[in-house]
Amino acid sequence: MTFAQHLQAFGSQTALVLEDGTSISYAALAREADAVYTAAGAPTRRRTLVAIECANGLRSLAAYLGALRADVPVLLVDAELDAPLRQALYQRYGIAYVHTPAGWQTSSYAPPALHPEVALLLSTSGSTGAPKLVRLSPQNLQANACAIAGYLKLDESERAITSLPMHYSYGLSVINSHLLVGATLVLTSEPMTARAFWERMREREVTSLAGVPAQYAILRQLRFERVALPSLRTMTQAGGRLPDALQRWFGELAAQRGQRFFVMYGQTEATARIAYVPPHRLLEKIGAIGVAIPGGRLELRREDGSLATLPDETGELCYAGANVMLGYASTAADLSGPDQQQGYLRTGDLARRDSDGYFYVTGRLTRFIKMFGNRIGMDEVESQLRNERHDVAVTGRDDLLVVAVRGASPTALEDLAIVISKRYRLHRSAIRVVGVHDFPMSGAGKVRYAELLTDVAPASAG
Q1: Which of 180, 135, 140 is nearest to 160 (CA)?
Q2: Which keywords, in A-to-Z order, does the entry hold (predicted)?
Q3: Continuous H helices in 82-212
Q4: Among candidates 435, 382, 438, 388, which has minimal Cα distance to 413?
């Protein structure tokens, strides 16, 4: 059972405020959600996997909640993802029913067998359309929503705006945790750079704002300190590391205004949230990811698997909690696989713990970067480009995706940068496509990615 089964318990309380100002009660939202799965074209067989092409609107949200209420397993997909990438996902996983903003669409794909606890599938990278999915259960969703509502102290007086896409685990966690407590969601598809976004913030008396590092960097540039938002009480940040200077700036601004600024850490594999920094400790713990969320446990593992227990000793960050996924899926056959994690997640991040028990991420074990709230698999980007006959090696860091190309003209390099920007929905300034004579290689014939990054994009040149 999840929060979705109990929507009607909040009755006439306002669940949603639509972009045109219309208010939708919890009772009405429950009816809308249920109607999606009795509409023409909806699947009739129990537990048939469906996909929802998501936008931040009533139709997508109702389809998601209706799936949870009807025990229909669902894959959330960015409606703006390139059509070939969407279709490749549907074909790979045998998804014959797709809910779009216009209604249901069907195909002839054979529905796959599913683990009985699978409720939600999320891509490990919403921007590349990576075929690897995270399998989440109703218990995962409920546990994470409860933990988030607990440490944020959410109640029915909250009004959160949809500043993040719902197909993204952080954006979805905002939705889940607020609906859990009977709060109000102010729906918008406007970006933070739009005047209409801030007008909606003021007019709808929004109390909570969520953002990823790129959004907070934009707010700083837009002189956020001059923006009058009398109803705003809480700001939250996740989706990658926020630079220390911005953590301090927003922490100090929030303190001056009597607001709360939460720096948080999570992964899709943990249904979004793993750790947070309590606002009253933020300014003394700049750079930390904080402590485990309620009901969870963080620990560090050495290379030999033993626990790293000394203050400031580095190890792989591991998390235990009821919000840990069932496991990954890379093929349709994986969807019926067992619970591979048993509530325990090795994050792939290196971290240390200080003497107060606060954790700090110091590096990564795996080839992923987080940009604009999306996790980018550099191996996946490289594979896609090589399949298109580009001789490339892909590396990067959290503020920059670097593509080194052998044997390409300056015009071809710029053309490729534009393609990458559009395909993966990254700002052009966050992409560096460079021509190289050769890639640095190891004795085993593998690309030395760290050396390549240092050669073509040293951090000081960021």
Answers
A1: 180
A2: Ligase
A3: 83-93, 138-152, 169-180, 195-203
A4: 435
Rounded CA separation 126/168 (Å):
7
User: pTM, whole model, 2 decimals?
Assistant: 0.84
Determine contact, residues 376/128, Cβ cutoff 8 Å. Answer: yes
User: How crowded is the C-beta side of 372, counted as CA atoms within 13 Å?
Assistant: 19
Classify strands 359-364 and 97-100 as parallel, antiparallel or unpaired: unpaired
d(CA 103, CA 80): 16
Instruction: Kindly state the helix (H) or strand (E) to which residue 52 belongs, with its residue range.
Output: strand 50-54
In order of their start, the domains of the chain are 3-363 (3.40.50.12780), 370-461 (3.30.300.30)
> Residue 22 corresponds to which tokens in the numbers above?
């219309």
Residues 6+ apart with CB under 8 A from 185: 15, 16, 17, 61, 159, 160, 161, 162, 174, 175, 178, 179
Tell me which amino acid residue 271 is: T
pLDDT for residue 335 is more than 80: yes
Q: How much of the chain, in percent, has pLDDT values that exceed 70?
A: 97
Collapse the DSSP code of 111 into the 3-class scheme (helix H, G, I; strand E, B; otherwise coil) and give the result: coil
Q: Are 433 and 427 in contact (CB under 8 A)?
A: no
Helix (H, G, I), strand (E, B) or coil at 231: coil
- Rounded Cα gap, residues 155 and 276, in angstroms: 19
What pLDDT, on a 0 to 100 scale, did the predictor assign at position 462? 37
Asked if residue 40 has pLDDT above 60, the reply is yes
Tokens 């001059």 sit on residue: 226
Q: Which amino acid is at 352?
A: R
Element (H, E) at 215: helix 213-221
Q: Which amino acid is at 382?
A: E
Q: Computed from CA positions of residues 248, 252, 253, 259, in that sequence, does the dihedral angle turn out positive or negative?
A: positive
Strand-pairing partners, residue 320, are 297, 344
Q: Is the four-CA dihedral 215, 208, 166, 17 of positive or negative sign?
A: negative
Which of these, 348, 347, 380, 333, lies nearest to 129 by C-alpha position? 380
Q: Find all residues with CB under 8 Å of 427, minimum gap 6, and list them.
A: 214, 372, 421
Residue 190's φ and ψ, nearest 5 degrees, are -75, 140
Closest by CA to 339, choosing from 319, 325, 329, is: 325
For residue 273, the Cα-to-chain-centroid distance in whole angstroms is: 10
Choose between 97 and 123: higher pLDDT: 97
Q: Which amino acid would we find at residue 203?
A: E
Q: Write out pLDDT tens, residues 142-183.
A: 999 999 999 999 999 999 999 999 999 999 999 999 999 999
- Token pair listed for 232: 């705003």
**Sign of torsion over alpha carbons 126, 131, 132, 138:** positive
